[in-house]
UniProtKB/TrEMBL annotation, chain A:
Identification of the protein by name: ABC transmembrane type-1 domain-containing protein
Parts of the chain that traverse the membrane: 12-36, 64-93, 105-135, 155-176, 208-234, 262-282
Domain ABC transmembrane type-1 span(s) in chain numbering: 68-279
GO CC terms of this entry: plasma membrane
UniProt record, GO biological process: transmembrane transport
Taxonomic source organism: Mesorhizobium wenxiniae
Length: 292, 277
């Protein structure tokens, strides 16, 4: 059989892989190099090597430390809540109840909304007094006029909620296909043994989707800071840096303050940390799988 | 299995809660986009009563936004073509490699895509500035292709895996070259998967914001960025911004069912078998 297979010439694969390596590795090398230099965009010829100076600046930069903390919060909290909400939604959608079937087709919508549009949509929804949230509150007889984006804590919570809004559909979809792959026989056996539906969920569904949740968590951790456009539109990183993660701070440093070498250092530190933690988690997950 | 009451209550309650959470902001935007200025800031807030298309006609007549919409379409479609030209042969080739080589290449492709988009923004900006391609569609197409190729290779190679090897082998025995086998046999069979992948690429490119924001000024600005112009600085007229959002969502809404089909795939047994063995 192997002899009559199409002969794969590397000519098929090389252009794509070559383009990919060129378009990713060269820029990354350039950013790393830039982070070790003193670079002024107006006088690029005066660039000189300054070693770890840009990295040393982190220690005395309160805004950097704040952004690192915000990054941590904006990765961990949304991912955990996306997993919990996604699991709750997946279990509900697995039921295929009459009247909720359309949900199975439509619930993915937020995950493909352009992030900038999502930012405007939520900004409209949260306008104090006249937005959609105030409308919903008025349906329940409440008078809700608070400016959620105006104070530090509520702005951060708002960004987390929007982040969950973007992420829950994909998480629910992946967990739903994981749930759908559990054989019905297991539930039937549990039912014969007198287990209620809730017990079956707790003792069968949740343990069996846990391994999938680990992989989904890593995947989402890499995706979740893609809400940069939402922050750009919704809060602009404010108030007072409360919703300014490192990628947002690096963006401002590069394109508003034109401090490109420092921005490069922030991005290198940010990327190394987030990719490093994710790859480490993947290796842990696959190690436990092999061990089983 | 016994249909106990708790199970149904849970199903309905949770579905209803998520339907409210996931859809109400979008429906509110739709309602706002149809409101007359007088209804916009009525208190307490209301759902639109007398729909008016005035905001839609206003933004279509807006030269900046309509040319940005055209830019978005041109950039997205060009990205599909360039990505496919690179990825279809590569995915076909990878799908026909030995297991270990295939796994190694797919892992490499995925690893190259792992870094957050923001790390690329400075080098790409400096590079395109150097070669005078800032504010051109070409720059955006190159960047979008860079982000789309790994995804496309990943999905397409899974679709080529599903093409029956017997048919390809029969074609080879009849004297077809590898290239002929790919174009005449495998691509037509994998067509629906290729279309689904093209749709994902379109969405990715249509939604792209960061590079469109930094690499364009006026000429090549895409709709995802031009939409910011409609955000009022002082909270008055949100109608145009809402209408622009709804227009941006039209192709997305049309494509959602396809997204579901393809995004489920990574959890398939077939996929598991491919990656973990």
């Amino acid at each position: 059989m192997a002899s009559s297979r199409p002969k794969v010439s590397s000519a098929l694969i090389t252009p794509a892989i070559g383009f990919l390596c060129l378009a990713t590795l060269v820029p990354i090398a350039a950013v790393v190099a830039l982070s070790f230099g003193d670079f002024n965009i107006a006088f690029p010829e005066k660039t000189r090597f300054i070693g770890l100076y840009n990295y040393a600046r982190f220690l005395s930069d309160g805004r950097f430390i704040n952004a690192a903390l915000v990054t941590f919060i904006l990765v961990v909290v949304p991912v955990v809540l996306q997993l919990l909400c996604g699991l709750a939604l997946a279990i509900a959608l697995k039921e295929k109840l009459v009247g909720t079937r359309w949900m199975r087709a439509a619930f993915l919508l937020p995950s493909v909304v352009p992030p900038a549009v999502g930012g405007i949509v939520w900004k409209l929804f949260l306008i104090p007094g006249v937005g959609g949230l105030s409308y919903l509150a008025s349906l329940f007889g409440h008078n809700f006029e608070a400016d959620l984006l105006g104070s530090k804590t509520s702005a951060l919570i708002s960004v987390i909620i929007v982040s969950i809004w973007f992420g829950v559909p994909i998480v629910a979809l992946l967990l739903l296909s994981s749930l759908d792959s559990i054989p019905d026989e297991i539930y039937e056996a549990a039912n014969l043994d007198g287990a209620s539906w809730a017990q079956a969920q707790w003792h069968i569904s949740i343990p069996l989707v846990l391994p999938a949740m680990g992989a989904v968590a890593v995947f989402q951790a890499l995706e979740v800071l893609g809400i940069f456009p939402v922050i750009f539109v919704l809060t602009g990183g404010g108030p007072a840096g409360a919703t300014e993660p490192l990628n947002f701070y690096a963006f401002l440093t590069a394109f508003t303050y034109l401090d490109l070498d420092y921005s490069a250092a922030i991005l290198v530190a940010f990327t190394t940390t987030i990719v490093g933690v994710c790859f480490w988690s993947i290796s842990q997950i696959s190690a436990t799988r092999v061990g089983r | 299995m016994r249909r106990d009451l708790g199970r149904r209550i849970y199903g309905y309650l949770v579905s209803a809660a998520f339907a409210l959470f996931l859809f109400s902001p979008i429906l509110w935007t739709l309602s706002t986009s149809l409101k007359q200025p007088t209804e916009m800031f009525q208190w307490p807030p209301v759902i639109v009563r007398e729909p008016s298309a005035q905001h839609y006609t206003a933004i279509i007549a807006d030269k900046d936004f309509s040319s940005a919409l055209i830019n978005s379409i041109v950039v997205s479609c060009s990205t599909i073509i360039l990505t496919m030209a690179l990825s279809i042969p590569a995915a076909f080739g990878i799908s026909h490699l030995q297991k270990t080589a295939m796994r190694r290449l797919l892992t490499l492709v995925l690893a190259l895509r792992a870094a957050p988009a923001m790390i690329y923004i400075i080098p790409y900006f400096l590079f395109f500035r150097q070669v005078h391609l800032v504010d051109t569609k070409i720059a955006l197409i190159i960047v979008n292709t860079m982000f789309a190729v790994p995804l496309a290779i990943w999905y397409l190679s899974a679709f080529f895996d599903q093409v029956p090897r017997e048919i390809e082998e029969a074609a080879m025995i009849d004297g077809a070259s590898t290239l002929q086998t790919m174009t005449l046999i495998s691509i037509p069979i994998a067509k629906s998967g290729i279309i689904a992948t093209a749709i994902l690429i379109f969405i990715g490119s249509w939604n792209e914001f960061l590079f469109a924001l930094t690499l364009t000024r006026d000429d090549a600005k895409t709709a995802a960025v031009a939409i910011l112009n409609f955000i009022p600085f002082e909270g008055t007229d949100w109608g145009k911004a809402a209408a622009a959002c709804v227009l941006m969502l039209v192709p997305i809404v049309v494509f959602v069912p396809f997204v579901k089909k393809i995004r489920r795939r990574p959890n398939n047994d077939r996929f598991r078998e491919r990656v973990k063995r």
